[in-house]
Write a structure and sequence with these properties.
CATH topology: TIM Barrel
Bound molecules: N-(aminocarbonyl)-beta-alanine, zinc ion
Number of helices: 12
Number of domains: 1
Mean pLDDT: 95
CATH class: Alpha Beta
Strand content: 15-25%
CATH superfamily: Metal-dependent hydrolases
Shape: globular
Structural class: alpha/beta
């Protein structure tokens, strides 16, 4: 199978030039002007941007959480990702307390194999790490799972104490692997939630009002300080607020290997969504919560200044009618998470590049290259073309996620993926699905190589 992409404008993290690309057996083998080669498939990419496929380093497909399971599995979730221009994801395997991390990895391999239509890797969520389990981490690294997520939030569920945090961080550093942190002081937040419930506060907006941004900032400060002592690169996931970003900035200015991602929801949505009537605010119940609008400018500034290095989705969809409903009479029972895997590239292209906030090269860095470097995947590929579309649950071109609402309903985006190529094969073309379930390979990742990010 060979593929020739002609006359495209090729954008990478640093380049911007016109050329042809020849892909043979899943790998780019030639790039040059007016290539004189025969190919099984030829794509005319005149007036189109050709960019590396998007990498979403934070998704939750088929994830048991909040008394239910996220609505997209590896089949529907990866297909929706592909339609949105994302050709690789890194999802999360979850260790069950008292059980080995290898068991968790096997469980998640079974969830993905034969279903994923794009390539996927796993971070391991560690929930329990007595001394005798610490050596498991090296075996995980050898199996291509070279990053861990640790939670300061969700006491009694995914939360780990600072001792466990430090043990995991020290070993991860010794193995050349990295730590992803959910940085929010869940212990204090739980106290605030308890009082709110006792006072009869039940609406979705109380999810946000019980999770102050200062508790996110405290988690970011503490996790970076512990990582610094443990000598491990740390990556703060789903950073949502100016207060939290300030802690990343201070650490980076001290020369610490501290990194962070934000997500489209924190760049485009805000606290007021929770105030929508008839329980609609539940659609945006996620953790951390949406913040006051002014935070968005600070986050965009952070993306420009390289205080934030990547944009993921934290895609964790729950249907409004059946699943969000679980918290109708108690905000603390609303499953935490929102959909976005399909919307990330368009939203960031539109809000970032088209609206003049970031360059095309920065767009590629933030949606693909930096995650690839940080998580041992560099490089992957895909295309995106400028046009204009409305994101809507009713727009068949823009909604393939298995969830009954769009978090970005009505958003107009200039820039959506027209032709998506995964390992040399066209998998989406002008709204038509050409991929196949099970074609996605497990990404056996390398060790940390993000020193200059
Ligand atoms: O609300 C969220 N973010 N749900 C997914 C779990 C997590 O904390 O990433
Ligand atoms: Zn999290
Ligand atoms: Zn998450």
């Amino acid at each position: 199978m060979s593929l020739l992409i002609k006359n495209g404008r090729i954008i990478t993290a640093v380049d911007d030039y016109q050329a042809d690309i020849y892909v043979e057996r899943e790998t780019v083998t030639l790039i040059g002007k007016d290539l004189k080669v025969q190919a099984d498939t030829v794509i005319d990419a005149s007036n189109r941007l050709v960019i590396p496929g998007g990498i979403d380093p934070h998704t939750h497909l088929d994830m048991p959480f909040g008394g239910t399971t996220s609505a997209d599995d590896f089949e529907t979730g990866t297909r929706a990702a592909a339609f949105g221009g994302t050709t690789s994801i890194i999802d999360f395997a979850i260790q069950t307390k008292g059980h080995s991390t290898h068991e968790a990895l096997e469980t998640w391999h079974r969830k993905a194999q034969g279903k994923a239509s794009i390539d996927y890797g796993f971070h391991m969520i560690i929930t329990d790490l007595p001394d005798e389990r610490v050596p498991e981490m090296l075996r995980l690294a050898e199996e291509g799972v070279t990053s861990y997520k640790l939670f300061m939030a969700y006491p009694g569920v995914l939360y780990v104490d600072d001792g466990t945090l430090f043990r995991a961080m020290r070993k991860a550093g010794e193995d050349g692997t990295v730590i992803c942190m959910h940085a929010e002081n869940g212990i204090v937040i739980d106290e605030i939630v308890k009082r709110a419930r006792a006072e009869g506060k039940t609406d979705p907006k109380w999810h946000a009002l019980t999770r102050p941004d200062r508790m996110e900032a405290e988690g970011v400060f503490r996790s970076i300080a512990i990582a610094e002592v443990a000598k491990v690169p740390v990556y703060i996931v789903h950073l949502s607020s100016a207060a939290a970003l300030e802690q990343v900035r201070l650490a980076r200015n001290r020369g610490v290997h501290a990194h962070a991602e934000t997500c489209p929801q924190y760049l485009f949505l805000d606290y007021t969504y929770y105030e929508r009537p008839h329980f609609e605010g539940a659609k945006w119940v996620m953790t951390p919560a949406l913040r006051e609008r002014w935070n968005q400018d600070v986050l965009w500034q952070g993306l420009r200044m390289n205080e934030l290095q990547a944009i993921s989705t934290d895609h964790c969809p729950f249907c409004f009618k059946e699943q969000k409903e679980l918290g109708r009479s108690d905000f603390s029972k609303i499953p935490n998470g929102a959909p976005g895997i399909e919307n990330r590239m368009s939203l960031i292209f539109n809000g970032g590049v088209a609206q003049g906030r970031i360059s095309l090269n920065r767009f590629v860095q933030l949606t693909s290259t930096n995650a690839a470097k940080f998580f041992g995947l560099f490089p992957k590929k895909g295309t995106i073309a400028a046009g204009s579309e409305t994101i809507s649950v009713d727009n068949p071109l823009m909604h393939h996620m298995r969830v009954d609402y769009s978090a970005y309903e009505g958003f107009q985006v200039k820039g959506y993926s027209e032709t998506v190529i995964s390992r040399g094969k066209v998998i989406c073309d002008k709204g038509e699905w050409k991929g196949s379930s099970g074609r996605g390979n497990f990404l056996k990742r390398g060790r940390y190589s993000g020193f200059n990010l």
